[in-house]
Amino acid sequence: MKTQGMPLNITKESILEDYRTAFRSRQASLVGRKEVFSGKAKFGIFGDGKEVAQIAMARVFRPGDIRSGYYRDQTFMLALDMCTVEQFFAQLYAHADLAAEPSSAGRSMTAHFATRSLDPDGSWKALADMHNSSADVSPTASQMPRLVGLGYASRLFRELPELAPLSHFSKGGDEIAFGTIGNASCAEGLFWESVNAIGVLRALVLLSIWDDGYGISVPNEYQITKGGISQALAGFQREGDGGAGFEIHRVHGWDYPALCETYVNAARTVREERIPVIVHVTELTQPQGHSTSGSHERYKSRERLEWEEEFDCIRKMREWIVDQGILGAAELERVEAEDRQAVLDAKDRAWRAFIEPIQRERDELLVLLDEVAEAGSGGDAAGRARDGLRRLQNPLRRDLMRTIHDTLVVTRDADIPVRRRLLELNRRHDAANRERYGSHLHSESAQSALTVEPVAARYDDDTPMVRGFELLNRCFDLAFERHPELVAFGEDLGKLGDVNQGFAGLQEKYGELRVGDAGIREATLVGQAIGLGMRGLRPIVEIQYLDYLLYALQVMSDDLATLQYRTRGGQKSPVIVRTRGHRLEGIWHSGSPMSGIINLVRGIYVCVPRDMTQAAGFYNTMLCSDDCALIVEVLNGYRIKEALPANLAEFAVPLGQPEVLRQGAHVTLVTYGACCRIALDASAQLAEVGIDVEVIDVQTLLPFDGDARILESLRKTGRIVFLDEDVPGGTTAYMMQQVIDGQGGYHWLDSPPLALSAQAHRPAYGSDGDYWSKPNRESIFRALYGMMREADPATYPELF
Ligand SMILES: Cc1ncc(C[n+]2csc(CCOP(=O)(O)OP(=O)(O)O)c2C)c(N)n1
Fold this sequence. Notes:
By secondary structure, the chain is an alpha/beta fold. The chain is built from 26 helices and 22 strands.
């Protein structure tokens, strides 16, 4: 195989610059691996073998463009200064300081890249003027769903005139979303769902597949039909200019001129023809193997390893440079030596910046520990703890905390002033590290959902009663008017106006791009919303039924929920996931798997409104904020009539504030969503037998009762029951933990707390099936009556 001559109109200087970037990146990989084996870093995964393809891709990446890629993209990031070599090493060391490690502040493992879309106060930067990279995640192919939205946003910016003023996000919708993925990850369902969605939406995507023939140790023939991803993708190839589908290129990863030409053509097709492109880069290598966890000699043949050496892309590019007379070998050696040294220097600077602050903290601590020893407290054990810390070559903050802890334990009987200072230092370190590793689970900006001013619903004398879906429909209509950047999409959401009519008529009013039908593809629907949100739009994505949220749950959990956290407030995507659930009928239409959800989406607020008025209040609250949320409407509430608030556009329900639906003195009954109605029903019957129930709707599961309103009720009643239609030990157990443990409710209990849930099995179909699957008025009555009878059998005789 022979490489081509000089590509296109590229200058010799820029070729040399490309080579040096690739070379420095390779050096960073080599040095990085050594850093792991020397024990200074825990794990390494590097971009060696993919350098030349990535410098070619970087050539066509413009300000405003955005990447959604994975851990192999280090050369691309370095080429565009989205990451410096020093920052690369800072991440390797898990340096938990944004100034040193701006991708994740030490929260993500190495090669998980991100640029900062937000200023420190959480407000947007001018993304249209920057090189952007969405924040990487580790699960293979999970970068794909968001790529759908990142690329689709350009279409919306181009085609929706109301978005024209948002020029800080887009300049006319020309931006390309650059995706990257490994060959083996293309075996994931998310890959195919995303490719299909990108094709259907004609999203502005340039997707590169880095193909080194393996997925860790497993070769392509076990991964992909026909053993080659572009062959398997052939049906997506468009036919003729302007046709639907993709343009698909194949190019060798060691062939610099061919790569440059391919990427120039690919970017032109995406930007000018507005057709998505896939570049399948083959014959890539992985000189150091998959990661520092193993060695590729164990699964690659000698012939393969020899081939990898010969076709190493850096070596090939170097030969080509010499061949073309761009620079002589001796001169190349000179610049390589310079670059090798530059990488070592950057590594040293990154290491010092990481370790020195910790060493200073250790020195400060050692002064106190010396005082402890001088006071003779804690005996030998205190001295040993101190000496152990002093001896550590590379102390971590964890070592400091352990030493303080051990010293406090062994000096427990000593009444020495230094112990108080040690306690104070303990508190200070603990608080600083909790902040260092715990901040930004949610937005901490001025638009945090928790700071949105609540506005109570106002009702006029002639307040009309409307059905639930009509109330929501008006709420959405007003929201589209107020927020030009609001878009909503989902299955049957556009023309039909959703299966329950919440969006009825709105597509006609606001157009297909703002109120859109979508394919049946829950994971990429949420991904689409994440990508749109990252580019400054406000998506409401509908998942038709709560039971089907499971398809999207992985994306919500791994991507959306972690976004603020994994960038330490550097990126946000204020997505609203709308769904409807709880009661209908049948195994897959009436589930309420809330505990599965709330335990997986920490980082997303979860609202469980009991009716459509409350739901509207949550939509309004979330649209005022820059947080993301899941809003679960009650499936059987759309036809029930509710009073229409006069201030429907302003009315806002606060998060984390339960509402007392019924005052009572004997038992507190805590529930949410569809169960509120049933709880009230049961309470009415319990009142007939003299049991006075206080019913509380928690309204949001995440956050949960921020002001401990439920505890206030428990202090009055002394008895508490948690009710829902999740599985036993599910969300009822969560609520119980929050109140009994978290709020200290156990102090006020006069009876054992009770959890009433649905059965462990899925809810059976039909009304009788439902009756014996889920809690109902009678079962609630019996449980609460039983609780009261146990406490006072004389007043409450045996009934059943
Ligand atoms: C969902 C998921 N499954 C498994 C893994 C473990 N894993 C990490 S990388 C990898 C192989 C990926 O191969 P490929 O897509 O070809 O990318 P490469 O590393 O070769 O560039 C696997 C199996 C993972 N991160 N995520």
